[in-house]
Every structure is written in structure tokens, then in C-alpha cells.
Design a protein that fits this description.
With 80 residues, the chain is mainly β. The chain contains 1 helix and 6 strands, in the order E-E-E-H-E-E-E.
Length: 80
């Protein structure tokens, strides 16, 4: 399921492997990801995956929240 408002889209996925020890994940699609990433780095947020552009043309990074859920942030950087 995905919900969106303005330039942010939030995707929630029910993982069929959740009972096998996989952690819950939330995907947050956004714009200006580099600005957001730099702000987090400036404030000392620890990430579980540094920012990089994937082969899917999504620029992504992730962090783990205090409840051990993975938050993945992404922005499409491919052409039109």
C-alpha cells in the first residue's frame, strides 16, 4: 500500500517472511533526498545504508528506528 501527500510517498509492505525474523520496513519516496541526507548527517544520525544510486535509478539510503524497523528513503533520479 502506498499513500502520498505533496512530494512525499510512503509505502507500507507486509512482508510474507516477517515470521522468519525479518524486520519491518517502510519505504519513503521523496524529492531533494541529498538535502535531507545531508541534514541527517549534520545532526549525527547513524544510517544502516549510506546514500547511493541503485541500478533502478533510485537514490536511496536507510536507517533503523528505535523499534528496529528499517526506514528506506528514496528518490527517482532517472530521466523522464
Amino acid at each position: 500500500m502506498a499513500v502520498a501527500r505533496d512530494a512525499i510517498q510512503l509505502g507500507l509492505v507486509q512482508d510474507k517472511n516477517a515470521g522468519k525474523g525479518y524486520k519491518p520496513t517502510c519505504y519513503i519516496r521523496m524529492v531533494r533526498i541529498d538535502d535531507f541526507y545531508n541534514k541527517l548527517m549534520k545532526n549525527g544520525v547513524k544510517l544502516s545504508m549510506p546514500i547511493k544510486t541503485q541500478s533502478s535509478q533510485m537514490r536511496e539510503f536507510s536507517a533503523t528506528d528505535p523499534d528496529d524497523c528499517t526506514l528506506v528513503f528514496g528518490e527517482y533520479v532517472g530521466g523522464a
